Structure formats: structure tokens, C-alpha cells
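Posting here for the record, re: zinc ion.
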Amino acid sequence: MNLTPKSKNVSKWYNEVILKAELADYSPVKGCMVIRPDGYSIWENVQRIFDAEIKKAGVRNAYFPIFIPMSFLEKEKEHAKGFSPELAVVTKGGGEDLAEPLAVRPTSETIMYHQFSKWIQSYRDLPMKINQWNNVVRWEKRTYLFMRTTEFLWQEAHTAHATHKEAVEEAERALKSYIDLYKNHFAIYGIAGIKSKSEKFAGAEKTYTYEVLLPGGKALQAGTTHDLGQNFSKPFEVNFTDKNGKLDYVWQTSWGLSTRSIGGLILTHGDDNGLVIPPDLAYLQIVIVPVLSKSKEDTELISKSWEIKANLEKIYRVGLDERQEHTYGWKLNELELKGIPVRIELGKKEIEEQSATVYRRDLGTKEKVKFNNLEKYIEILLKDIQDGLFEKSREFTKANTHRVGAYDQFKEIMRTSRGFIEAFWCESEDCEMKIKEETKATTRCLPLDAKTEKGKCIYCGKESSRRWVFAQAY
Ligand SMILES: [Zn+2]
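Prediction output follows.
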């Protein structure tokens, strides 16, 4: 299928593999993309897993309008400033000029908090925790499928609490749920930490993040949670009467995870032959391919295939490729490209031996497994693939994380292999900006487990006490 090897050119491979494996396609609208069924099914698996987590935490789903009055966005100064360059604005509706322009939501803080102010009166109405699975628009001039598109899908949760302590706990709990999602289901290792003042969400007190290192040495901000303090509740007058009858503003959080995560998934696990999808998120975890010969033996092969499918289907997502119009080799290539975690090959010889040939996509290895042992074998195999992919991602990140003490070395790494750099920083925005200008690297986060040490700022040499993580970002 003429796929550019990932090892040769990551970004070329990335675009090609998405198109050839039919995850997504370019759209006639510049900056936008079409998510095809094979790509959307990955998102559906993410939704299914994460939606259950959200609900366990007492968050409920709702839906708010896509159009936001411009005056709402302008109520929180930092927020308006942060989002104005990428806003899409509607000025006409039904053939008439609108009295007030409407922004197409870049995020929903403002419109949701307008409603919160109507719904929250007393401490009895708190906490309020609401999530939306929706689309948002942030104008982009260049498209990078999944990673950077004008419109993307995400979940955005917004919570309101009676105390700051409770809001911080919620932001930290949500961060933990993202870490678990990435580790256990995406099989992607990352670093959890806190954003610098200039990198935090526009309008937040504090932004927590999970930063992932991708092949090519650039970082992806994989999920963020924000402690909004009272920065929105004051302009939006979301206030409540506390237990003592005193009026106070609520303390808020917001947190989101988008379809960019699928871009991270593709880049992290794929190889020269195509996609490698972790079993938990794969549309099909197993595909059975009988070796058909257009003879009467096919009947027995097909009926055995259906029997295996019926057994495995009780637990797994299983496909069966009995199409006659494609050759056996063509089918194997397609499954390889699409990154199906496990395939079961079944020919005349297998029937004689009462066993199946089981192939695992991540390592490219095969094993003969007796029919009566197949279910047990698959159970262990899928877990092994899932764990193995995470371990590989962890090793890649560790191998490409550099602890650096000299700025020359910092510059050299960013010019060549890139990766995560751990370095002391005095926490002045001036040094942060200069480093960005000179190396394109930004502060990704202060790791949650960062120790207080004695050191010197990598840029200005001033006394510094903590090592930050730097990287170029997607
Ligand atoms: Zn400095």
C-alpha cells in the first residue's frame, strides 16, 4: 500500500496512515476534517470509558448552545484576550444583521456560567458538576489531522463548589482520571504537572496538565484541568448563600479532553507497517481470517470461524473477514495497516491440528493455539499487548528526557533530537519568553513530584529551586 515508513518521516507517515487506514479525511472547508467510522469508533470507545468515570464522580451530562453572545466572552478579561485571535463570529442570521454578534463556542465557560448564576442560589445547590460532549471551534490556518483542526470534538466539564479547597480537590481528581485514562486505555505514558503562568488556561488560577512526549520529540498537552478560583463566578455573578446565611461567590473548575488524543494515540503506537491500536480502544480487537480457496473445504472453515467468533464475541469486539473478492494476502495487509491488535488465521492445516494461528500486531509474532485453549490465551494476550504498549511508551519517554544544566546543551537538543528537557528555571516570564524565541521550547509543566533543590536558572543563572519540564509543543 506504499506507506512512507514512520522511521523515515514521521509527519509524512502520520498523514498517510490516517488517510489510508480510513480514520479521517480532509474536508472542503480549510482547517476542518472529516472523522470516518474507523476513526470515530476510537472516539466512541474513549467516550464510553470516560463517560462512566465522569458519572462515578457525580458529574452529569447536559447540552448548551453552540452560539455565545460576544458580550459574554468579554466579561472575563483574560479569557477574552486568550481566545479572541481564534474566534469564529456569526454576524448574520436569517438574512439579517444580528443586533449582537455571536461567537461560535471556542469553549463554554461563559455560556454555562450564565446559566449557573440562575440555577445556584444556596449551598444546597452545590456542588454542581456538568459535562458536555460537544464540538468547539478555534480558527486554524493549517490543518494537521486530529492534532490541529478548526473544529474538534471534546468533553468539557464545569463544576461549582462552596469552597476553594473542594474545587482544588475536584481539579486534582479530574487530572487523576485523565492520567488513568491515558495509562490504562491509551497505553500512553506522560508527566503530570502544573502549567506556568503564561501557559495556563486563559482565566484560570492554576492549570494542571498531563504532558505526553510523541515520536519526533514534541510534546502533546494530553488533558488539562483548571482551578478557576472565583475568576468567572465574580463577573458572571454565580453566588450562593452559605450555611451561615452569608453571600459568597462559588469556586469553579473546568476540564477537557479532545480528539487530539487520537492523534497522540496514532503517533505513539504506530509503526512502519501502519497503525497499532491498543486493544482497549480498538474498534475490533480480534479479526478472524479463514484461508479460503473457493473449494468445498471453505464451508467447514467458515463454519469453524463463525463458531470461534461467537465464543469470543461474548467478551470481545470480534470481526470475521470472509470476503471472497479480496485475496488472503490483501486482507492481512489491510488488518496490519489498520492496527487490529490480534488476528486469528484459520486454514486447512489448522482444522486438522485443531488449532488456530494467532498473530499479535504490536510485535508481529505468531503462535499456534489449540481451539480449546483459545479463549484463555486471548484473554492473557490482549492484556499483554495493552501492558506492553504502555511499557514501550514509558521507555521512549524516559530515553528522550534529558536533565540539562547548560543552556548550550539545551539549544543543541532542541535543534536536533528534541524531547523533554528538565532544567532549573527562575520562573520569570522574561526567561521563559527568551527560551521560547531562541529554541521554540516552552515550559510544559512543573511535575507534581518535583523536589525543591538548589540550582541555577538555565537561562539567566539566577538561584532557582525547581526543575521544570521544557519541550517544543504540537
Ligand atoms: Zn531566569
